[in-house]
Amino acid sequence: MSASSSAPAGRETSPRTPIVSLQRVSKTFANATVALKDMTLDINSGEFVSLLGPSGCGKSTALRIIAGLSSPTAGRLLWPDERPGARDHAISFVFQEPTLMPWATVFDNVHLPLKLKGSSAETSRTAVMEALEMVGLERFARSYPRELSGGMKMRVSIARALVTKPRLLLMDEPFAALDEITRFRLNNDLLRLWEEFGWTVIFVTHSVFESVYLSNRIVVMAARPGRVVADLAVDAPYPRDETFRTSHVYSDHCRNASEALQAAMASEDDDHH
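Now predict its structure.
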């Protein structure tokens, strides 16, 4: 680990230009469901931000809008520090399911984003193998998805997201379907990579414990309409490990996040009555 691991990029508190900014973003679907209403949020370079909230609060919708997979009904999405005219924000998206091609090897699945940009397997070999090495799967390059466990499939999905060397990594509940031991292990792997490479990560979860363990900032959302109701700093130092998980600092942050989440769900119930 580099010397910067105790304070990765984005930990400093000085004001700076956000990497992406949602300004009063709203999203209403064709069936009249209001997924987001006036959502304003700045994500700073190098941050690890969790979007925490109950199902249906618009977390995934916000992520898809940032990724360019969906358009806001109202409001604006800005990339303030981007060069004028540049359209490639270097975003990678990790979905809840690994979404691997079952007929393709692990190598070919990870190569896919580069292939779509016109890079051959031979030209991409070094980059693909580096991405597999990051997630500890370099020995499985010739394997097929059916031969892998759920956790290994998710590692392949993460390697595929990393092969393009993104600035911004968007993750939509990627570990929700995994058992707790695998989930803890992948949490640790993800933090190690984030500290080492200094990406910006936006991580959707409905787990208070996961959000506190991973993030230096937790954005709590309420539903109907989806909106930000709290923005919590998790100022515990990195690297984090099992000692942090069992510390008073961790439990205090979990209590704060849990109370904010309960308040968000209570406000949702009030809106319904």
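The longest strand covers residues 18-28.
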